[in-house]
Batch of 4 targets.
Target 1
Amino acid sequence: MSNTAVKQTNRTVLTLFKDLWEKSGMVVIYIILFIGLSIFVPYFFTLRNMIGLGLSVSMVGMVACTMLFCLASGDFDLSVENIVAFSGVFCAVIINTTGSVVLGVIGGVLGGALFGLINGTIIAKAGINALITTLGMAQIIRGLGFIVSGGSAVGIQKVSFFAIGNGSFLGLPNPIWITIVCFIIFGVLLNNTTYGKNTLAMGGNMEAARLAGIGVNKVKILIFSIQGAMAGFAGVVLASRMTSGQPNTSVGFSLDVISACVLGGVSLSGGIAPIQGAIVGVLIMGTVQNAMNLMNIPTFYQYVVRGAILLIAVLVDKFKETHRSSI
Amino acid sequence: MTPYLEFNSVGKTFPGVRALNEITFNIKQGEVHGLVGENGAGKSTLLKILSGAHPPTEGYLSINGEQKDFKNTRSAIDSGVAIIYQELYLVPDMSVAENLLLGHMPKKYGFVDHKKMKKIAQDQLDFIMEDIDPAKKIKELSIAQRQMIEIAKALLQDSQIIAFDEPTSSLSDKETKRLFKIIKNLSENGKAIIYVSHRLEEIFEICNRVTVFRDGERVQTFENMKEVTHDILVSRMVGRDITDVYSYRPRPQGKCILSVKEVMGDGLKKPASFEVKQGEILGFFGLVGAGRTELMRLIYGIDQKSGGKVKIDNKPADHSSPRASVENGLMYCPEDRKYDGIIPVRSVDENINISARRHYIKAGIFIDKKKEAENTMKFIKQLDIKTPSKDQLVGNLSGGNQQKVILARWLSEDVKILIMDEPTRGIDVGTKNEIYHLMYNLTEEEKGIICISSDLPEVMGVSDRIIIMREGEIVASLNRSEFSEEKILSLALPVDEEKNRSEINE
């Protein structure tokens, strides 16, 4: 009697696991990875390391929320790393000149939003593709960052500003809280609002979305503006953590964000963008990096491993897909 | 004639769906073998098995007595199988010649031999009697011309078995006649030809034998076309008798609901004016390129008109975007469902509610998933949409069900005028009949419908009035009592086109 009950539970656990694997295989992979690392890598599963891990993925996590929308609509944005750098510098300069932290934060975020607005307008109205537009804007923004800062790091004198990035709440550093809140907000936006659903529809079939009466240009401009504002905010948080605005920071960050999303199963061609995918993608990237650091693997090898993980993840997903359709 | 291609107890199961069951029949050399059946009857699955895209779950097929076990499409092509699909697989920015020889371009010293390529392409174009410069880019050709190029491409492989999947869906009458001549020519040369079509007249015109499919089963193969009639075929396909697929019924008409005055824009040669009344189904007939779709795109606001006035309910409705049209109650079901209609990677639920969800917003921004689900379930039931669940991806449904999803999308809105561009293209008889009934029901609720179709019997079957367009202008408007095939065709055909046609008929 009890034997059959055990069998029953075993079966349900197995089917649950199978379901999860089918729907979001990356979550399963991450759980296995996490357990494995906890067992085999000393010091990995400690509170201090977990907090460090959270902190290290917080920047990518924040921007991944909005990049998810870009990817969902079938576009991507290569200028986020430069917005991060610019907004950090811009915020620092404003704080130093006006002495107001609030103005500095607002300036950084609005600056980023403005660049996003320009990106979105060019892409939507002029019909130039996102690769060229954001690549061009990326150069301009990086340049403006250097111009505003005079070419070197801008130290911030206002100590109260540092609380944003270095303070903590209930034992968790603020950037982690901010990232969690962002994921919740954008998850709800994606799944429970017209904005999110329209974004997915546009990525799934742009022309059909337009003919179905969606104001596709408006939505596109909105997506890029919010993306810019978010990158700007991430830049402010980074400046706060580093106590200065650095014009040459975050090189390669845009591609980190995009690869994290893709790793989690977000489609580059648009229309498919699960929020849990972005979260898991960000976590996998960060966790592997963290474990490699703990194991003292040299940086050169870390590049190879990270690239390999991205490719393997995408291949596994592709395999799963073709396997499913050929059953 | 001995059987050349044989299907032996072929079966195919997809997850949860039995697509084909115990199919046994054969195709002979030198015959044109028709395959008919409703959407989802198994014809496409059979073609996919023949093409090597899907292996059968049970059974096997053999060619010339030899059992074949195709691993992929390449091995099928190497065994002499060519399949001409409805969808076009051409590279728009490459020339006709390059497209024809894509994958096996002639080479000289390792480089592409352009001269030879042009020669081969020209010969092939001559063979299909298509007067196109091989140096022209595909994107400069009309849809019908592209279809002919696709056919020419498949014929270049010198295959022994050629399957046509709805080849005439975007061809004009003239091109269809020419295609039939080519097919007859091929069968006389000993090719085994499979011809899949929803247009039964074509089956009678060109096929030597016909096999009927229903629900994944082979119902019957008619060995002699003289023994079978249109009605018999339809009743075998549907499993019940449909005496008149259009089932036209007269309905009362009210006041003018849409008025279009002197509208002008790209694709039109002269300004267009017409009206739609409440309760009316207004047919639009013309050949490919007559400007019907272009005119509707101007009215719906996809393209911008250069002049003219549009009024809905006597209020100005000069829409500059589809969004504005939808808000005024003017909806559009596009001609090309796959590219302009559905969002294949999203669910039935999301596809249906894409527009109407704006009416059920909670707290300013949140969508009401419960209401959306109710709406979806209502239409799945009402329109009999065949889908395993409301969360199924629309890309996995059959063409007829995709069309129903788009209809449901607009029926969940406050529609006043519905423009239906080729409403039943590629859809089986049973579903066609359901869609016509829906159109009648809608107009009985005082809505107006514009029905654009290249299928003359269809326009004549369902319309209360037909507007005929020719080369970018409206040339006539006929009331139902004045309908006749000859009259409509002679109005629609350009003068020189008519001459060409009679030449080909000779």
Note: Chain B has a mean pLDDT of 88.
Target 2
Amino acid sequence: MASTSQCIASLARLSIATATRRPTPSIIPKLLLPSVVTPSFVRHASGSGSGGMRKRAPKKKKTYKAFRSYDQSDLEQYSLCDAMRYLRAFEVGQPPHIIKYEVHVKLKAQKNGPVVRNRIRFPFAVKSDTRIGVICPEDSPMMEEARQLGAVAVGEESLFESIRAGNFPFNKLICHTDSKEALKKANVGKLLGPKGLMPSERHGTITSNLKATIGEMIGSDEYRERDGVVRMAIGQLGFSPQMLADNLKAVMETIKRDMDGIIEDGHPKSLDEVVLSTTHGPAFSLNGKFNPTDEKIQPQDLQSAM
Amino acid sequence: MVGVIRRMHHLKDILALRTGPGAAILPENVSRIHIEFCHRMNGGHMGPRKFWQENLPKIKFWNPAVPIIVNRLEILDGPAKMTIYFRDNQKSAPSTQSTIQLNSSSTGTSPAPVPADGERTVVVDMKARHSTEILSDFLALTSAVPVKATPQEDIEMRELEDLKRRGEIDRAETRKTLEAERREKARLALAMNEAASIKAAAT
């Protein structure tokens, strides 16, 4: 239709006398024309026109190479103290050393390739529930040393007995090299293995340096990227805003360093979003600022006992 | 992670804790609050628990500097008490640092502390009382000033309610179509089954 009206318009421009003339329809009746020439106005479902429905191949689901990244123009972001104020309100009346602040660092990353994964030592220790058991020869100086370093269960045969009885007072177990043979003979692998507690040299849990191993276990946390997000606990609810900020800074620095290391391998990753939440609380996207927006609230107000 | 808009709708719904029963600013002389009740609700501990879950976050949001300690007892038939600590205005306020800092506990290890020098206490019995009663008692005793929602917040609330209503309608419609589809599918499967059995019987 558009072409005819265009045609008419151009004709009108040429001369008014011929403007009313329409293109003459063909004199030959449509029936007599060979079928090939006939302009077909009927549309068929299948291109060939042979009739019948042809089954289409099932639509392939679109796959993306990178994890999805959203437009953040509608995202409300909060300063650290504002987010803490809300979260402390949500967690009111909860034991402050058990409830943890969590951070979720979303990365712009490809689905394949290496992931960000590392260990971090926080300026302020987060974990409050590390209970370490140490297998070492009974009545040895190592036993006393382990006790002093904060181990909850120490011993050799006495510890194996309690393990066989189904009593696990620890959630991390290390073994001194002197007790390695005793551990092998004790036949407790079936009990410890499923819990991931069995000491092994590969994991660095059979050691001769108890101090270094226990220090590493208490003070450091592991993190890894899953589905393009690094999630980890970065503080206890009782922390002050400054303490939390220090821990957060430490995490962000190590993650950035990890990302830089991966970029060299040709797998670019960049920071997308940083979200703060708690064990029971909602999640707040952070805008990188520290101070509260309400001028009546000071950062030191957010460190009262919970 | 979930899409941004959906997240924001959900967050706005949650952040209604800025307004509502319990959103009130406590006067300067309230130094701390201690609340004690049992884990089990039988024996009149439902009111205190609801007060903790529904009103206390709002109080905490508007008074972040006031320590609010909740001590939940594991015994079956314990007390349910709220202790409000007031500091005397005449005397120099006892600094919160000097008093022993008690933390909330879920195992009953934080009983109400003895009032410090220059502090007086008021004890409210919460047992077998509704949370609204407890709240009105609390607000009256502390003479707290309720916080009213700003016009902006009112508009946001109304928008959220609209959204919920529309969502409910949409959900009903979707459910209807889905159920019709499922019914159709089931009927087809039944017919196919019958046809197959007839075929099997014929041969």
Note: Confidence is low (pLDDT under 50) at residues 15-20 of chain A.
Target 3
Amino acid sequence: MPDVDKGTVRITDIGPPHYEDFLPPIIKRNYGKWLYHEILKPGVMVHVSESGEKLYTVRVGSTRIVSSDFVREISDLADKYCGGYLKFTTRNNLEFLLDKEENIEPLIKEVQALGFPVGGIDHSLGNIVHTQGWLHCHTSASYASGVVKALMDEFYDYFVSDKLPAKVRMAFACCLNMCGSVGASDIAIVGMHRRPPRVMADRVKDLCEIPSTIAACPVDAVRPKTIDGKPSVEIDEDRCVYCGNCYTVCPALPIADPLNDGVAIFIGGKVSNARTKPTFSKLVVPWLPNNPPRWPEVIEAVRTILEAYKEGARKGERVAEWIDRIGWPKFFKITGFEFTKYHIDDFRIR
Amino acid sequence: MTDEQKQKIKEFVVNLVKEYHGKKRFKPQDLEKEVEQNFQSENITRKDAKAAIKELTDNGELIYGYAGGSFLTLPEDQTQ
Amino acid sequence: MAGVRGYGGGIVGRFSDEPDEYPGVKEYHTARLNQIEGFFYTSDVLRKLADICDEHAGGLFNFHGSTGDIQILGFKQEEAEELFQKCTHLGFDLGGSGSALRTPSCCVGPARCEWATYDTLHITDNLTREFQNEMHRPTFNYKFKIKCAGCPNDCIASGARSDLSIVGVWKANIRIDQKEVAEYAKKFDIKKYVVDKCPTHCMDYTDGKLTIDDSNCVKCMHCINSMPKALRPGLEKGAQIRIGAKVPMVQDPRLGFILIPFYDVNKDKEEDYAFLKDLIQKIWDFWDEYGTNRERVGELIQRVGVGNFLEAIGLDPLPEMVEYPRANPFIKFEEYLVPDDEEEGKEG
């Protein structure tokens, strides 16, 4: 094949555009020279440089999934208020960077008119990071975007204010592979399969390569088996960890299951080193149903956690620190969550 | 590695993939290890193997597939 | 299959289970594009990406995926090559997927944060360019993630998920502005909310003066987070390198451990990060040699033992690397002495 497609040179292996070309001039002038920052109000902060220059940040709760029209709308706002520059955050927020304080309020008005909240800084509920979910992942046990939308609608007030004891970082992964690395969040919601993949025995031979299907299983739960005279596979349900790898390789082993899929809630993880070491989130609710479009059971469970935390934690205490102080028995007592045998870790690779 | 050696390695790799087509999926590092072993007497290194394989994928003689792990296969393999 | 010629990753194939019923989404592939470091963009480049997405894909994006890439959603294989070439002509290349390096990512760093102890954007950009081949042509056992956080607050969550995590730290004393401490004292109880919460109790606030015994400071950031105008990280800035964090599959999530307690990243920057690149290469060589399919480097290290891993990559064991020394007595000594008569007996 020639390296010229449609009259242009085929370009590969160039890496990303260079970041220096995308920094607002005020940032270029003060790169590495920032002295301190202050939070002016929920969602708005100012960074002050050694040179005395001030950079105002307005943080806007965006979504992970956005349309090209949305991209154009925010580009127009960036042109109008920020010289055409804008940035995103690791939690799918959008940040407008202003060098003029008087632009803050007009910008906020326009952002809110588009339907987006300003907040997510300091002692607030941050934007929920999430994975792909039903929208375009084949092993997802839940919707991701849909649950996140329902949750953020419900807890909107915690995003636009700073009335929680400390920051609360929430995350959603649509299956236990946890692509979003949600496992170190104050509140982590994880899509759960309860039933191992079903074997569509009559289709395995036509749709799948049996050796690679067997090799795809990380716990050796998939074995060859002749069913009704046709080469197929069987799944050792005791060994299966619901990772979905076999389904990735073999479409005749579907794992998604409306009857059995749902979500679990883990809490008390953190990544920052402040005061206490980073730690993973721990199980509090092993399974709740997928109940679209508003997921009321999930919302109630999260409300119970947030209210107990708000009530019980001291100022500045993250969820993990609060529970460390009061102990898990007390946590289960005040929240009323049932403690079951599933809460006790019995997982061993066999 | 001389151009002549590189050509020999490329032929070796393509033949190996052809021979085992439908029976075994070679990860790139499997092929690198095979090259290393087969051309041991000619002081061919892993780096050389990587360079030869890169030429094969760049010009489309081999393509990458993914099934829980990346592997190399023939362009006509559309099983995925 | 979904992909572009020569690359083994960057495009994730999605095929509908019911193509006849939903022909429009029979193929619904995703392209991962390397994000701009720090997630900085201009309206101009965003509009051009939106045009590409509308023309060749489903008009949907992720800004950004969990790893950090921009994702363009919903295109057919027949569009892949042209979409890819339009992106590269705009300056964007594909990210990693499959058994390959993932697009490295970083926090906002010195671009807008006073706490960054090194240039997270520069190092991430540099490594991304250096390892194009490892990202685009999968030759690893499984994925490998590199993430760079400018300070121990770790806003990029590197310590909980990256195989190689770089987190900024410092050596010299925390810089104190007593005048600003006094200002904070008017707003809240410094003893209660700052001093008493210090994990090593190395602070004191008496008679309106804040003192810190920096020799006992573990660089947790709590006091600095609480009073950003009064306290600043110390000079002699560098970073800590951690290794082996990962998500659950298949043997539980793992936070990794400290490999290099103090990496002089600012000096290494002047040498094009030669030390770091050499270290990463040694880790990859070890993983390539001893790892098995779908085994993350952290799992391999646990399987073969941290001691053996350290020997292989040429690092000495340090107390910083462990939570605490071993509690069990099953030490496998590598050498033992043999009495002379036994030696002679053998020889005889």
Note: Chain B has a mean pLDDT of 87.
Target 4
Amino acid sequence: MNISPNEAEEALDAIQKMTQKTRRSIASSGAHVSLIVTGVVWLIGFTCTQFLSGPIVAYIWIGISILGSALAGILNMRMSTRVRSPSAGATAKRIGLVWLLLAVYCLAAIAVAWPLDGKQLTTFIILFVMIGWMAMGLLLDFTPVWPGLIIIALVLVGYFLFPDYFYLWMGILGGGGMIALGLYIRYRW
Amino acid sequence: MAELNETIHQPVRLRIMAALVALEAGNEVDFSYLRDLLKVTDGNLGAHLRKLEEAGFIAVNKTFVDRKPRTYVAATPEGRQVFQEHVEALESILKSK
């Protein structure tokens, strides 16, 4: 079989594009679902926190967090059947253990720093979750890292520069930003 | 010296192999996911997969997930080897330009 150098170049280009597309697709497969669902939870939760007061805010957060976690879990489980890996069980255990340790570390850090106000507590939790999310991305090629960095930057800007509007900031820019990023990854990436 | 492989060189099959080799060894991908990734029809993908399976470059595994039939596809070690040689052959043609 003989082909011209131009044909060889076209074939190599097609291989490179397909390889890149496959790796990106697998790496971001669950990311857009988590981003969109978490974004909606943040948008509703933080906007309510900004404008409402009393125990109703806690009930709203608990309700939407449970609904959001269940929805993200179901959607991610359905998507996880697209690629089957013999090492998936062991990887899932490692991921679970890392998140458990991070949650314990987050609780310990909050206990040491207590008393905290609502904004400080929110900032702490988001920073820990985002660090865990980015660590997963770096270690397992599981999700892209850059959305985590953007969210951390948004949290810190809101916390230090706009403390009076922190929850609204987090709802619209943090939650809305996550939804926009999720849609971008799903349809454009 | 590495040689070109006629079965793999066909454009759709080349992209199928590129996608499957991009997965970690041992991983397999769902038929419909591969179809969406390649933007081809069910029939077109099925025909090309048969050719690759006959050549021994891929393994097709039909199974049930949640009581629904699913078809999973993976590159065989031989398929990975032949694809790698094909890529090396393409690179050497390009270098001789």
Note: The CA atoms of residues 13 and 73 of chain A lie 37 Å apart.
